Amino acid sequence: MIKAIIWKELLQYRRDGRILAVLLITLALGFAATLNSWSTVETQQRERQAAVASDRATWDNQGKKNPHSAAHFSRYAFQPTSSLSVFDPGLKDYMGSAIWLEAHYRDPATLRSVEDAVEIQRFARLTPAWILQVFAPLLAILLAFAGIAAERERGTLRQIMSSGVPPQHLFVGKAIAALCIVGLLAPSVIAAVALAANTHDEVGLPGTGGRLAGIVLSYILYIGAFTFAAIGISARVAKSKTALVVLVGFWAASVVFVPRLASDVGSALSPAPSAADFQARMSDDASGAFWGGSEEAQQRRADVEANVLKQYGVDKIEDLPINYDGYLLQESEEFANGVFDRYYDELWGTYEAQSDIVRLFSIVSPTLALSNISSALAGSDLFAHRHFADSAELFRRDFVKLLNEEMIQKGGQDGYGYMADNDFWQTNPDFTYTPPPLGAVMSNIWVDILVLLGWTFAALLLAFRGVRFSFKQEAVA
Amino acid sequence: MSLTDEFTSGQQAMLQTTNLRKTFDGVVALEGLNISVKPGETLCLLGANGAGKTTTINLLLGFLEPTSGEAFVNGRNVAEEPVETKRDLAYIPEQVALYPSLSGLENLKYFAALAGQDSYSDADLYAFIERSGLSKEQADRSVSAYSKGMRQKIGVATALAKQAKAFLLDEPLSGLDPSAANEFARLAGELRASGAAILMATHDIFRATELASRIGIMKAGQLVEELDPQALHGKEIEAIYLNHMRTDHAAPAKGAAA
């Protein structure tokens, strides 16, 4: 019985030129998005690898230089790209991909792709994830909006009922048929996965298989939610045209308006400081409060001096067995690190508060829940960026300490006059990045998963009850 | 002994109602209906709009739940076994609804499969269509270009493919041109001759007289009289029916159309 319903639905779809046109356009967009995204990631990876090599070569061959001067000259931490970002680049284009690792400062990520983009790309970059998030539900709506309403309008619902078809069978048959057609978009997804697999995974995302399975499952739930909702609404309203208007309205709200509104409300309720103001305040508190001329700064430096003299049991700096300038520099770093932690914790807290507000809106927009899950599993969300930025910061602290130690131990009385050479630079480590395990990612998106599951379940319930309702209505018509 | 009792004695009724009652929001649509249709018999229900004819059919189809009383198809209680009883039933409404983008053959294939008959070859299906009076060429055409009569024939072909034992015909002749109505009457006669039990709701006294084994006159949800068309002249049946209609001033009950 269900097989017959699926067969008939697919036959009708095949003969409906509008559906074929929408399917082909979406498929073409999917392939274009895949190629575009793959090409972007390939370019980013090539550029990153070239930049990493160039950065290393420059560092290794900088010649004789004081370690602290080198700490200002310093190096970059380039964010590696995961192969899954071919499918969903998430916030990568907006968050920056390189962090300058210098002494005294914690710099924000720079090299944001979006800065190089033309205006239209700012609206939405063509990615496989975006195509699926936006067009797949629209296709599902076009396939299912007439599911029950048109049967009623045509009079065939009564014929179906007289054949002894239970409402749940009609729903299952129609849902499977619609999902089969949406499933024809799979080649573009498979192409994205194939190209992603062909792309060097610079990050080595832990649990890539699990992440991929999670992405596929979450998109199935998402498209299922729209398909079920379309059948449910179709069963509840009198006319298929009414169902189409209601569903397209819901789609526009979920995909376009609510995400924009959520973002604006998030920014309004939890405003992030301007980059210039943030850097100026942090620099003032971290550097000025230690190196400045204020009484407090002078006292801080005096305390450092007193402590080190006491530690080495000498009365004068000249008698110290270490280089005091290097020591003082490292002490200033330790002081600044605390300030950086305070400022960045506050900044990340602001971003997370914005994310939480946006997440709240996913109750009225399944697209928000899905995009959170998708970018998190692809390793391209805010959490992934923070993880990278924090890792880079830890490396910066160790690296600057390494340079200061060189000056402390070998600088003697020369201080800033001490010069290290290429032999030293070439022993310095590179920044290596290990992304968070899948468990950590999942613990960050469980609310989104629950919301998406809730949406799908609610839509399923709406459809089941709707079709039963339509049978009852038709019986007394 | 009523005609129904007479006909049902000695053979199991294919369609039967016992004290069937249906109300809609307190308004009585059907009151204590007792009818019985055996294999090879046609019972035509005549009555004005709102008399309860379609309500009777809807109750036998299991679309509605009776307020009290019972409906049986092939000995099975409709309320208790709604799916099983539908397997023995074929329903042909006034307007046979089909899918316009599908051909007649495809529509038949679909509705036959819904009824559990999904093993027919195309040759089998063409045979049902030809038996119902359509050609192969017509069967291969999209039904969007079908006349009402051609749709009725696909309805009959579906009933044949379904191998139904009982037919519920709800105003099947309404709106058909004389030629198509004749063709349908011929098919109904063939079905009856093949042993099918037919319950037909109609306004058409002439066709009822021609096709029925018995005629039941319904008024305000009640079967007010049963007639034997073999024992009465057509004019007499018409006079009896019109007499009932003249005294019928009851407003149509909600949900009890036709």
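Residues 2-475 of chain A form one domain.
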